[in-house]
Design brief:
InterPro entries: Cro/C1-type_HTH, Lambda_DNA-bd_dom_sf, MLTR_LBD. By secondary structure, the chain is α+β, with helices and mostly antiparallel strands. The chain contains 13 helices and 5 strands.
Length: 275
């Protein structure tokens, strides 16, 4: 049938074992996704024997097969390039600088989203939570923060949990730490990125405790002291869902919106009073 012919067209011929790094990388991603060789084979429309041969180096994958398996394993674009390189192929996905002319529409879109959230804090970050851009509302978050935490590159998670950062102003610090560390741990589970793991270990070692929060809550709010009052925000994250550029795929925008009417009123008052 058509599906069968397509599957055979991208399968690889059996070869003698080589020093290719593709096999070990494929095994890492498969185990990270908690899939057996049979599970991956079924989802990729190949045989379990072929998956085994690819992982041991007895078969070399075609370029199309590498991309098919990477898609089934939901491998991030940066790591898909590594799989291709490991199999001896050129990378598929570019990683343009945000300053490139081709990225002008992206910069415009990010700026538009950040402006639209004002006066509420909103910021754009890269894969490792380093600040890319922010709106004026973020000034509310950075007041009183130690200068060394604001030196580029600014890591916004370190900024939020460090004792010299926002930690002293976060009223539900243990709960917020639990949220941040849990999110970072999930990201590491998805990507396997060593810098993400290092950041997770660094932040976990900071003081402040860790709590799962109330079981009956809708979401974990950020409860922040500002101007002698407590403000409560809900965090939302926006990504570019159709990205085929590494930089764009790793870019996200986090906005902090009022979690209650009192915060909405307080924000309006802060804006009216000039902060």
């Amino acid at each position: 049938m058509p599906g069968g012919r397509a599957a055979r067209s991208v399968r690889s011929v059996t070869a003698t074992p080589t020093c290719s790094t593709f096999g070990p990388l494929l095994r890492q991603w498969r185990t990270r996704r908690r899939l057996s060789q049979l599970d991956l084979a079924v989802e990729s429309d190949v045989s379990a024997r072929h998956i085994s041969f690819l992982e041991t180096g007895r078969s070399q994958p075609s370029r199309e097969m590498v991309l098919r398996l990477a898609t089934r394993l939901d491998v991030p674009l940066r790591e898909r390039n590594q799989l291709l390189l490991g199999a001896g192929y050129a990378p598929e996905y570019r990683a343009r600088s945000l300053d490139d002319a081709e990225m002008a529409p992206v910069r415009a879109a990010v700026d538009a989203v950040l402006r639209a959230h004002a006066p509420h804090p909103a910021l754009a970050v890269d894969r490792h939570w380093e600040l890319v851009s922010a709106n004026a509302g973020v000034d509310l978050l950075t007041r009183g923060v130690a200068p060394h935490l604001l030196e580029p590159p600014v890591n916004v998670l370190r900024l939020s949990l460090h004792p010299d950062g926002l930690a002293g102003r976060i009223r539900n610090l243990a709960e917020w730490r639990g949220h941040v560390l849990g999110r970072l741990a999930r990201e590491h589970a998805v990507t396997g990125d060593p810098r993400t793991r290092a950041l997770l270990h660094e932040l976990a070692a900071l003081p402040g405790g860790r709590s799962l929060g109330a079981s009956n809550a809708v979401a974990v709010p950020l409860r922040l002291e500002a101007g002698g009052r407590e403000l409560a925000f809900l965090s939302t994250v926006t990504t570019f869902g159709t990205a085929v550029d590494v930089t764009l795929a790793e870019l996200s925008i986090e906005a902090f919106l009022p979690a209650d009417a009192a915060t909405a009123e307080a924000m309006a008052a802060l804006v009216a009073g000039g902060g």
